[in-house]
Every structure is written in C-alpha cells, then in structure tokens.
Amino acid sequence: MTKEAQIGIIGSGAMGSGIAQVAAMAGHQVVLYDNNTAALEKAKTSLSSALQKLQEKGKITSAAELLNQFTFADSILSFAGCSLIIEAIVERLEVKKSVFGEVEIVVNADCILASNTSSLSITSIAASCKKPERVIGLHFFNPAPLMALVEIIPAIQTDPGLITMAKELMLQWGKLPVIAKDTPGFIVNRIARPYYGEAIRLFEEGIASIAAIDKVMTEIAGFRMGPFALMDYIGHDVNYVVTETVFQSFFYDPRYKPSFSQKRLLEAGWLGRKSGRGFYNYASGDDIKGDATDMSTAGLIMDRILAMLINEAVDALYLGVASVADIETAMTKGVNYPKGLLQWCDEWGASNCLAVLDGLYEEYHEDRYRSSPLLRKHAAGNKKFV
Ligand code: NAI
User: What dotted CATH number matches 188-386?
Assistant: First the structure.
C-alpha cells in the first residue's frame, strides 16, 4: 500500500485518534469518523495539540500541514475512497458487527477492513461482512503513537495475502508487527494474565502484602511497575474486564480465573489511580511507597509469578498462537517486560520453572497450575527456546 492510499478510522477516542496520528505521520490522508460529534471535536483538539508539541520538539516540520491530512467526518460515506479502514469503537461485538456491515456497503471491493479490538474474535467480526476475506485484526497498544507493537490477527476467513500486506504496512508506519492466531487475548493480553492473577493470589493467601509483591517484581525481577501499581494504573474497569473476558473466552479455564479482590474494587468504584483509590489509596498518600516490610518471601513471590508467566508463554508457543520471536517481541515491546519470557526460561532452566509449577500443582491440586506439555518436554530434554 502506498502513501497515496487513504486510511479511514472508525472511532475517534483514545485509540482511534492515536492510530490516525500514526497513519498521518506515515504520509497518508486520514478520514477520522465518529458517530459522536463531541468526541470528534475532542479528537480534533487533542490531535492538534499533540502535533503542536511534536513540532516544538522538532519531530515534525509543520503541525498545520499534518493536520491538513485529516478529514474529521460525521458520516461513514466519507470512507468511500479509502483503501484501509481501522475500526476502534466501543468493545461490543454486536456494535462492531453492525458498523462493519454498514462500512462494507460504502467502500470499494478491495478495501481492507481491520479491527483494533483487544478481546473479541476477529473471525466473528469478519462473519458480519459479505467479503470476510478482507477482514483482519490490527491491534495497536496505548498510546498508539508511542507504542511500537502491533499484533496482526488473521481471522480464519482472512485472505493469507493480507497478512504479508499488513505486516509491510505496519513496518512502513514504523511499527513492530507480530502475527497472532485468533485466540482470546491474542499474544500480550493472554500471556500477561498471570502477572496480575498470580500476584493477587499471593496477596489473597496472605503470603505477602501488595507493597511487598510490587517491590519484589520491580526491584528484584526488574519489571517497570509492580502488578498492583500497574493494575491501578490501567484501571480495574479495563484490567478486570479483560481478565473476565479472557476467562470466559477460554471456556472458563481456571488458569485465567478472575479474583474477588479485584472484582470488589470495581464494584466499589475504586478503579485505581483515576479515581484516587484502587489497591492503593492515592488520596491519602498511601501509594506504592506503602508497607513493604515482609520481604522474606521475595524468592517465592518472584518464582510463582515468573513460572506462571513463562508457562503461559510456552503454552502459547505450544498451541501455535505465535512464533518464538513474536512472543518475545510482544512481551518486551507491548508491555515492556525486562526480557522475553522464553529467554528467561532458558536462563532460569526449564526444569527449575517446571519444578515450581509442579510444586504448586502438588500443593493445591488445581488445574490452574498445570504445566504446558512443551515446558515439560524442554525440561526433560534440557532444551532451550531461543
Ligand atoms: P474510547 O471510548 O476512547 O473511544 C471509542 C470511540 O468510538 C468514542 O469516541 C465513541 O464515540 C466511538 N464510537 C462508539 N460507537 C461508535 C459507532 N457505532 N460508530 C462510530 N463511532 C463510535 O475507546 P478506546 O479506548 O479508544 O478503544 C477503542 C477500541 O480499541 C476498543 O475495541 C478497545 O478494546 C480497543 N483497544 C483499546 C486499548 C486501550 O488501551 N484503550 C488498547 C488496544 C485496543
């Protein structure tokens, strides 16, 4: 696809306007559509100030010229000349399906239709189209202009040629594309689940305080944010809902089971940083500097969370969700993990990781702690992943 190709974006919220900025900066004319005029006005203002800042920093020559590449549209008829449409509207399957159906009538026969959904099946969205082979998932990360990773998700109906085309286009846009099978959570939102889930479990069992767990995972394991601080930052309305959706989509596999601790925060409206209170109470200054005295459990905390994360990464590889290289890129670029989980497994030793999981399985007799057959194979053969 050349720079002359016009790109259409449906939904001018956080993701839609970010993706629109990325496409414009790559040289495209962009049609940004929203069915809410106030949202569209807001996007215009925020894009204009984002581009102004980039101009001040010398990253672009003219904010005004870049802004001229945008058409802010309140009707999908404006998509008529587009070669690629990226949908970033509310995360509801029925709404997305109906919008895809409407857009397909407006665009030409070879226009590609992409969805930025985080949790819905691309296959089910594609099924709403007359030409499902032109539908693909393009999952950007927030904020889209800054985060390099894009997960490309072909539906089972997608024309295989589209995958290569999407990959090339994302590279042209300065992104790091990875290919993911159309399975719940794709790569990042699947493999990252135990970072939250196992941390909460350790806390619920009274093994350590939230501050201690966060301290271990940042200061010893090297993650940028501890699991509780990160959940508070993401917001429990988003993070809990992703966990619950992934759990349901995996036919209630106990490995992804949500927690009551987090559900109660959501019910109380304690959504995290944005509402002043989540796992931590930001209003009272009891933030991540809270009590972290019980550090005697550091090894146990790190081993449990890391073993569960590695197991998830290995199982995603085992089930063909993505390649070794793409799994490593996804977790280091999509959620800034200090190193790829498969490389971490190699360094720690598959047998050591397996011993932690088997120990947990033995202790709890829960399917949650079952190891991936591939991890067991690597442990037995003393093999490396990377
Ligand atoms: P948002 O709430 O900021 O923006 C959604 C926009 O879509 C709103 O401006 C709304 O007016 C508009 N909209 C809703 N229904 C519409 C319709 N029928 N036709 C046209 N416009 C409509 O949401 P956000 O955060 O930008 O998310 C959008 C999509 O991106 C969702 O599918 C979400 O799962 C996905 N996503 C979100 C990420 C995030 O961190 N926020 C990260 C990656 C993907």
Answer: 1.10.1040.50
Q: What percent of the chain has pLDDT over 90?
A: 95
* Ligand 1, residues at Cβ distance < 6 Å: 10-16, 34-36, 39, 88-91, 95, 99, 116-118, 140-142
Which of these, 29, 92, 36, lies nearest to 65 by C-alpha position?
29
Those residues whose C-beta lies under 8 Å from the C-beta of residue 99, and which sit 6 or more positions away, are 10, 76, 87, 89
The two tokens of residue 332 are 């280091």
pLDDT of residue 269: 97
**Ligand 1 centroid, distance to 143 Cα (angstroms):** 13
Query: Mind telling me the catalytic residues?
Result: 118, 139, 151, 189
Q: State how beta strands 135-140 and 149-154 pair.
A: antiparallel
Whether the upstream peptide bond of residue 132 has omega within 30° of 0, thus cis, is no
pLDDT tens by residue, 296-311: 799 999 999 999 999 9
| 4 CA to centre of own chain | 29
Cα–ligand 1 centroid distance for 77 (angstroms) = 20
Measured from the Cα of 42, ligand 1's closest atom is 9
The average pLDDT across 266-292 equals 83
The yes or no reply on domain 7-179 and CATH 3.40.50.970 is no
Same fold for the domain at 7-179 and the one at 188-386?
no
CA of 47 to the centre of ligand 1 (A): 16
Average pLDDT over residues 93-110: 96
pLDDT number for residue 250: 96
Tens-place pLDDT, residues 234-257: 999 999 999 999 999 999 999 999
Q: Give the whole-angstrom CA distance, residue 373 versus residue 375.
A: 5
Q: Which residue out of 17, 118, 274 has the highest number of ligand 1 atoms within 8 Å of its CB and is therefore the one to mutate? A: 118
Tell me if residue 133 falls in helix, strand or coil.
helix
Q: Domain segments of the chain: what residues?
A: 7-179, 188-386
| 372 three-class SS | coil
Helix/strand/coil for 254: helix
Q: How far is CA 32 from the centre of its chain?
A: 22
Residue pLDDT, tens place only, 141-197? 999 999 999 999 999 999 999 999 999 999 999 999 999 999 999 999 999 999 999
pLDDT of residue 287: 57
